[in-house]
């Protein structure tokens, strides 16, 4: 990739080997180097959240309070799914760091699941954004037991 990438609020970041092309514009510059791409922190958070949820053994993301508020927020029209619940990111000009709060399924190896989450998040963020992921910190906040019920859905009303 030879695109200049910028996080929201950051400066431009040329990829490796492109520094000679930085700032070139006009008809003689390669098309892929004309202009810059800006990636918002929320975009990186969504990518990381989706990648973490794809890993077998992850039950949910977010600490207990965040999951409770998120369940309420998810029911409000127009707010959409809380893909970034339990995800915090710091995005710089060339690098990103990710912090995840996760709930794992009972019986899985937490060490193995954490390693799989790190690998999946790093691969997804780096592939989709071109940013280098310097760390993925994982806090395991809970273990989901097989006999635990999901958060109860509120009644739709007594009368239909």
Intertermini distance = 56 Å
User: How large is the count of helical segments?
Assistant: 3
Portion in beta strands: 25-35%
Q: How many individual β-strands?
A: 6
Question: What's the gist of this structure?
Answer:
The chain is of the alpha/beta class and 160 residues long.
Structure in words:
It is a single chain. The longest helix is centred in the last third of the chain and has 20 residues, at 110-129. Residues 9-22 and 66-70 have low confidence and may be disordered. This protein has helices spanning 41-53, 64-74, 110-129, and strands at 4-7, 36-39, 58-61, 87-91, 95-105, 132-144. Strands 3, 4, 5 and 6 form a 4-stranded mixed beta sheet that branches. Strands 1-2 form a two-stranded parallel ribbon. The chain is α/β, with parallel strands linked by helices. The chain is elongated. It is built from 3 helices and 6 strands, in the order ββαβαββαβ. Strand 4 (87-91) and strand 5 (95-105) form a beta hairpin. Helix 1 (41-53) packs across helix 3.
Topology:
Layout (H helix, E strand, L loop, with lengths): L3 E4 L28 E4 L1 H13 L4 E4 L2 H11 L12 E5 L3 E11 L4 H20 L2 E13 L16
Parallel strand pairs: 1-2, 5-6
Antiparallel strand pairs: 3-5, 4-5
Helix pairs in contact: 1-3
Task: For this entry, give a set of tags.
two-stranded parallel ribbon; 160 residues; 28% helix; elongated; 26% strand; alpha/beta; four-stranded mixed sheet
């Amino acid at each position: 990739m030879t695109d200049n990438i910028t996080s929201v609020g950051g400066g431009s970041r040329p990829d490796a080997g492109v520094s000679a092309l930085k700032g070139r514009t006009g008809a003689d510059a390669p098309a892929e180097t004309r202009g810059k791409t800006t990636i918002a922190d929320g975009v990186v958070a969504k990518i990381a959240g989706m990648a973490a949820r794809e890993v077998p053994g992850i039950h949910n993301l977010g600490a207990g309070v965040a999951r409770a508020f998120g369940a309420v927020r998810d029911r409000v029209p127009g707010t959409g799914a809380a893909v970034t619940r339990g995800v915090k990111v710091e995005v710089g000009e060339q690098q990103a760091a990710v912090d995840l709060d996760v709930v794992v399924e009972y019986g899985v190896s937490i060490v193995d699941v954490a390693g799989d989450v790190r690998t999946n998040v790093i691969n997804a963020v780096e592939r989709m954004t071109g940013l280098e992921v310097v760390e993925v910190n994982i806090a395991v906040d809970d273990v989901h037991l097989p006999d635990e019920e999901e958060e109860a859905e509120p009644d739709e009303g007594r009368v239909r």
